[in-house]
């Protein structure tokens, strides 16, 4: 298992999570394929477009966007996430993706963009991050966010056992309030369900330890190996169930 520091910043957290983070799947019935279809159902148009994937992560959307769009800038603060993203893009023989390892607020575009794609990214938590979206004239914005706090069973039970309150990821209510405050009209559609992921023990422990430390806990608070056994499937894998409610928001900048 990778070492976890006592105090972890955003970049370190996402670098550590890159190994187990969702990555591209060609399955037409995958979660991300369904989400893109939801977006297209309310007017998102990726075909032939020049796109920024803000907080692109390991590329579960980047590669699909690149296959439909003209060009994609994959932007992320985590070099480990970008390495996974690039690996999968090369496997798919894509040549229309550039990778930018940078904070969203520091990014200075070198070309015009038709569309900004933003999925569950912490880059838009701040008012400054949200305002920057509006600085791209005539661009379409496609935003995926949680409509309610995400609940991963193992993490929820871990925090309860350690007496921790998790850092709350802003919901789409924050984004809609921001748009309402700026008089911006938008379309929205929702979806809900459960993600189930089976992990090797070391990867499962890594997810627990990084979440614990990032949210202010200490590795000395609990026997993680013992705790993890309640999530074993008895066949060498550890099950991570996450219940989610998400919304897709689409709008056009003036």
The fraction of residues in strands falls at: 15-25%
How many DSSP-defined strands? 8
Largest sheet: 8 strands, mixed
Amino- and carboxy-terminal Cα gap: 48 Å
In helices, the fraction of residues equals 25-40%
Structural class of the secondary elements? alpha/beta
Segments where pLDDT lies below 50 for 5+ residues? none
Choose one word for the global shape.
Answer: globular
Mean pLDDT: 93
Provide a quick synopsis of the model.
The protein is built from nine helices and eight strands. The protein is of the alpha/beta class.
Description of the molecule:
The protein has nine helices and eight strands. It is α/β, with parallel strands linked by helices and 254 residues long. The mean pLDDT is 93.
Provide the descriptors you would attach to this structure in a database record:
single chain, 254 residues, alpha/beta, eight-stranded mixed β-sheet, globular
Please render the helix and strand layout as text.
Blueprint: H1 10-17, H2 31-41, E1 50-54, H3 62-68, E2 71-76, H4 79-91, E3 97-101, E4 115-119, H5 127-133, E5 140-146, E6 151-152, H6 153-162, H7 172-181, E7 187-199, H8 201-214, H9 224-228, E8 238-252
Parallel strand pairs: 1-2, 1-4, 2-3, 4-5
Antiparallel strand pairs: 5-8, 6-8, 7-8
